[in-house]
Amino acid sequence: MLFSISNWSQETLTVAEKDSLALLEKKCKVDQTPMEKSAGLAPDFKSKYKANEFQYEVKLSDKSLWDRFKEWLAYWFKKIFGISDAKVSSNYVEITLKVLAGLIVIYVVYLIVKVILNKEGQWVFGKSTTKKIIHDDDIEKNLVHVDFEKLLKQTLKEDNHRLAIRYYYLWTLKKLSERNIIEWHVDKTNTDYLYEIQSKELKDNFQYLSYLYNYIWYGEFEMNDTTFNQAQKAFEKTLQSLR
């Protein structure tokens, strides 16, 4: 009896399902249009997705050593001066670096101009209106350009007798060269000049002046006013004869 009841229940459910499906088909419209076959993906479809808006991977930019140095400075600016904004700190670094660069350029230009003035005695684009200043070590090399009268006035004012004798002797060589009595050269000795002088009187005077010069300048002979006046008169006498 139980078996018969079970079969009857299954047949009843099947009939009910069929009736429900038939009723649903009446209410719904079934689309019988055949589906078109998909054309598939285009071969170059990947090229459409290479633009920046389709790039989702974040790439870290390679920073140069200079950029890292500025960031390091900005960090210390921020730390030392208590700056809260990193952008403000970076701006201070940029301004500081520009100021330092400007100062370096000005200093380099100053050094170049200083070297030019000391070496040439004039500006690059104009002649100097002042006389060339020659240091003591270069006097013999620039004998023709030296104003010995001016040097002697300053030296005598300072009571530097030894240096005055040196200037007197070099002035005598300059005068002898200007008169074409000797051929002046920085490497020549006093004896070389002595052989070039033809006048007997002038040769004797020059020999005596050379003796005074060697004895006072190289011998470091300490002179008093009396001995200096005697040597000065001997030089002045020879220079007067060459004018």
Q: Count every helix, treating DSSP H or I runs of 4 or more residues as helices.
A: 8
Give the biggest sheet: none
Number of strands: 0
Percent in strands: under 5%
* Helix-and-strand structural type: mainly alpha
Mean pLDDT over the full residue set: 76
Shape: rod-shaped
Low-pLDDT residue spans: 120-134
Give the helix proportion (percent range).
Answer: 55-70%
How far apart the termini lie comes to 167 Å
Instruction: Write down the secondary-structure element order.
Output: HHHHHHHH
Radius of gyration: 54 Å
Transmembrane segments: 95-117
Domain Protein-glutamine gamma-glutamyltransferase-like C-terminal: 169-236
InterPro entries: TgpA-like_C
Protein name: Protein-glutamine gamma-glutamyltransferase-like C-terminal domain-containing protein
Structure description:
With 243 residues, the chain is mostly helical. It has helices at residues 2-27, 65-81, 86-120, 148-157, 161-178, 190-196, 200-218, 225-241. Among the domains are: 65-120; 136-241, no CATH class. It contains eight helices and no strands. Mean pLDDT is 76; it is low at 120-134.
